[in-house]
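Data card: per-record layout.
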Amino acid sequence: MGTAELRKELHGYIDKADDEFLKMVYALAKNYKDKEDYTLPGSPMDVDAYRARIRNASDSAKAGYFTTEEDLDKEMEQW
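The structure for this 79-residue chain is written out next.
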């Protein structure tokens, strides 16, 4: 199914959906849009987006949001 057909079918579902379905679809779409990495891996990005991504990563590391090599080894043992 191509993109145009997929959009048309999704619009049909949305037009007939109840509140619960609409809320789920909305939450999914909003979460996807709000993700820091909204662009697909390997997609080109401009310099401002690149710098913002670096700043966010640096801020996360400074705030303690990282995994140590030791913790990663422990996690990998459970795979």
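Known properties of this structure: The chain has four helices and no strands. The two ends are 35 Å apart (CA to CA).

See the next section for split statistics.
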